[in-house]
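Annex B, item 7. Sequence and structure tokens for protein A, then protein B.
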Amino acid sequence: MGKAVGVALSGGGVLGGAHIGALEALEELGFDVRWVAGTSAGAMVAAAWGAGATTQAMRAMLPRFNRHMVDIDRALWRRRHHQPLGLIRGHRLAELVRYMTGPRRMSQLPRPVAICAWDLVTCREFVFTSRPFALREQEAEVELRSDLPVAVATRASFSIPGLFQPVVLGSHLLVDGGVVENLPVRWVRYLGAQDVIAIDLIGDIRRQPTRPSSFGQVVGRVIDYYVNENERPSRELADVVIHPQLHAKGPLDFEVLQQCVQVGYETTKRQLGPKIELFSGTIPKH
């Protein structure tokens, strides 16, 4: 039996294709991935994995992720009142997730998975999980749910504020979990993992000096800095953090998806190969 590990998959827009390559590399290195938590793009891969999809099946789905999946809400130009809360509806991408996961609810997934989102109304984190667990007292404000359809939970997790419209859940407006927890290492541990590998698509931007040359790059740089700061405690919780070096013109630059998969695969093999002995290979007791 391979080395039992949990994997945390960060957000990062289309860079999330690297997660598929990373999971593929982990398999080849002999790891037995048993628990996965994901945020935003990482949530999409986590959902597919949780439903039992192989990395080959995920690769086969990639051509369907293209600009036609961007369903812009035309009401933005028609309404004077009650403007939509985001530019993109997100329904088409959610349908692709539903295609991979079926109509299952989180509690019906065959594998242990956690998906993160954030509520604009209460400013609380929501964690959608396929396995129940008890929260520590200091995390009591986190909302745990297992009753949502997987596609809806994932749709909430990838809803970048302002770009995608939030998911309405009762009185809540759920958006991208990367607002508070872009690298969900602690939820992998809550699921039961003793050893955790984190795939971090953002990395420490302070080590990557970049001079923005456009308004969009200025905004992107500020967002990356904020996300980097909320990732720092998560990196310290992981046993190993993998940092694929990736670049895209924006979160929906679908043309780089295939390249991201390959970079994720190669980086994981290169960075993790020499560290295999760090892992016990034991399956923790629940």
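Protein B:
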Amino acid sequence: MATDVRNPDPAYLDFWREPLPCTLTTPRQDGTPHVVAVHATYDPEAGLARIITNTRSHKAAHIRAAGESGARVAICQASEGRWATLEGVARVVEDETAVAEAVRRHAERYERTPAPNPDRVAVEITLTRAMGNVRVRRPKERTLTGALVTLRTVRDSDVPQLAEIRRRPEVYAYWRGGEDLVAAVREDLAEEGTETFAVLHEGRVVGAIGWYSEDEPDYRHAGMDLYLSPAVHGKGLGTDTVRTLARHLVEEHGFHRLVIDPAADNAAAIACYRKVGFRPVGTLRKYERNADGRGWHDSLLLDLLAEELT
């Protein structure tokens, strides 16, 4: 499915903001394709894609060999059945300002600033075509019923509400997500190997809970994580949410052990989990980066055996 290079569908642009590896295909002089893994960024306003590389790299050599007219190239990425391709004409750029902009965009997308490199250049691709299918393939909708809450497979229409909950300081402090929390929620939902439920109370979305699993037979277990709107804290909804999902994982999926690892200073969350039967295992020291990016904080690992579920 083709899309406008300079005015892409929001979901298409969101897909290119996820920190996914890509491939770059460039032509060798004999006409055969050279395909290599890269990190790339997409700038629809400028109609460009950018890659940083070493001036002596093969991809830079192939592009230079095409001459002033540039080389016809393609960048591709795929995840969970979604895919996207950007095609265009590539040129190697050595201008310091252009290289710095490519580095800035790389750091923004991949949340890591590359180390200084005096041999770094940028590949700028003037885009001529964008295509792909970025619809997230959701599992069949599932509903779990608790005493106070209903857990329902997250729908696209839930994302703005979940982003608003994530924006609350009490939630953001532990979940983070940057400035674009809609994109952050979508990124979490697209994470491979996880299933996320919206938490509903009295018909309203009040949070989300997700689970993942370790499927190696000798170590098989499941983990979970959740957030709820501060407006419903203290009403027993967290305990019911955790208990409802835990029962599902034990009874329907056959897990004998569940784990969860809240921040060590999140006393309310820890108390909630202990009511369901989770027991402290130990402190995970400096386990997670702080929301402001300045330092790290401890988390507390808790686990629950199937027979301990209350």
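Comment on protein B: The mean pLDDT is 94.
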